[in-house]
Amino acid sequence: MGTKADGETKTILKKLAIYLPSFYLIYYLWSILLVGSLKVDWDELGAYPFRIRKDEFSPAHRDAALGAWLAMVLTYLCSLGLTYGVVKATRKSWDYVVTSSLVHFVLCIIVNQAFPVNWIWWLTLLLATLLVSVCAEFVNYYLRDMREIELDHV
């Protein structure tokens, strides 16, 4: 019997089918926590992860805009563990992080029916993607690939 390789299309699609919904589940869990803690109107929760305008997404504000920014940052931090748990491959981990960012970018355009022009949103997205993809490779490499291998002593 053959083994499944991480580069096979079926394997990649299965992992993406787990990774992307989990990414948005984490995003919405953070959004729920932040909407509740910042006393934002609950009607805004549906589109909360897809905020792109400067008045809706900024760490400088003390309201829903701060919550939207924090939700993105915390989601990407948690996606580091998601990448470790789902991807399980050092060389492929950055692919999943970049794919989730690209899907998020496209969904933001679809939900808002506008191209994001907020520099804070772009900087946050690009830095989070870069940092998580690099850290995910290190985490997978050191915690998965470099773990001790027990050998039978003959």
Topology:
Elements: H1 9-37, H2 64-87, H3 93-112, H4 119-145
Helix pairs in contact: 1-2, 2-4, 3-4
Description:
The protein is an all-alpha fold. It has helices spanning 9-37, 64-87, 93-112, 119-145. α3 (93-112) packs antiparallel against α4. The model has no long low-confidence stretch (mean pLDDT 86).
Any descriptors?
elongated, mainly alpha, about 0% strand, single chain, about 150 residues, about 65% helix
Low-confidence stretches: none
Whole-number tally of structural domains = 1
Question: How does the overall form come out from the CA principal axes?
Answer: elongated
Report the radius of gyration as a whole number of Å. Answer: 18 Å
Characterize the largest beta sheet: strand count, sense, and whether it forms a barrel: none
What's the β-strand tally?
0
Separation of the first and last Cα atoms: 28 Å
Number of helices: 4
Keywords: Membrane, Transmembrane, Transmembrane helix
Protein name: Protein SYS1 homolog
Transmembrane segments: 16-38, 66-87, 94-115, 121-143
Organism: Chlamydomonas incerta
Summarize, please.
Its main location: membrane. The chain has 154 residues and is an all-alpha fold.
